Amino acid sequence: MEQQHSHMPGLRKESTDYGMGNRQTKDRLSLCNIDFFISYCRRKNASSPDETQDDIIDFLEEDEPNFSPGTAVHPWKILITDDDSNVHETTVLALNGVRIHGRPLEFLHAYSAKEAEELIVQNEDLSLILLDVVMETVDAGLELVKVVRGKLGKNDIRIILRTGQPGYAPEEKVSSQFAIDGYTTKSQLTRSLLISVLNDTLTNAKALSKQLPN
Q1: Distance of CA 73 to the CA centre of its chain
Q2: C-alpha distances in angstroms, 157 versus 5, 15, 64, 152?
Q3: How much is the pLDDT for 42?
Q4: What share of the chain is helix, strand, coil (3-state, %, to 5)?
Q5: How far apart are the first and last CA of the chain?
Q6: For 28-41, what is the mean pLDDT?
Q7: Are strands 126-132 and 158-163 parallel, antiparallel or unpaired?
């Protein structure tokens, strides 16, 4: 017998078999629902005969989300800039479902410094750039940092350098000469470390207080 959904509120059918002598009876109403069933029948008998409304199924109230109706949490918009498509894919996979300071992540993708510059201009609410050093040139990422901070005047955007060739951009030299917010090598960057770096870098980000309008 196919299991049928009850039209009576709060009633459910059990798949457990109850023994009755040598017979097995399936889909009997759960004993814990008997009192509710009797109460329901009494209410139905007491209803007005002219009542034409369909039966209303009452569900238990669920906890309300902890935000006001009509308000959406603005995501951190992160630009992944790297000429290796595998880096883009693994980064998104590693950060899938992650929330930083209660906010989700949204990813943009650039495969060269030129593409990155265009996306930075187009996205005023960009929060952070995960930036490779060696792309179309050995110092393309470093030159982009100069463009972001100088030409574009984007001092609020956080920049984390990720390099697979630290010899081209030693951490001490880069950190002292360029306005960056973090530095990692790809070989040492685990998922947990990446999340930790993002958490620390975005802690004081100006975009933290931004929300979508109602």
Answers
A1: 10
A2: 54, 57, 34, 11
A3: 60
A4: 35, 20, 45
A5: 50
A6: 52
A7: parallel
Q: Which residues contact 178 (CB under 8 A, 6 or more apart)?
A: 142, 145, 146
- Locus of tokens 């996205």: 123
What's the CA gap between 173 and 163, in Å, rounded? 14
For residue 101, give the nearest of 196, 205, 203, 195 by alpha carbon.
Answer: 203
Instruction: Please name each of the domains of the chain with its CATH number.
Output: 76-209 (3.40.50.2300)
Q: Tokens representing 137?
A: 């040139």
Side chain identity at residue 209, one-letter code: S
Contact 100, 198 (CB under 8 A): yes
Most confident of 100-114, 152-166, 195-209: 100-114
pTM value surpassing 0.70: no
Per the rule left: phi > 0, alpha: psi between -120 and 50, beta: everything else, 153 is left
Q: CA 129, 132, 134, 138 torsion: positive or negative?
A: positive
Phi-psi group of 102: left, alpha or beta (phi > 0 → left; psi -120 to 50 → alpha; rest → beta)? left
Token representation of residue 71:
């308000």
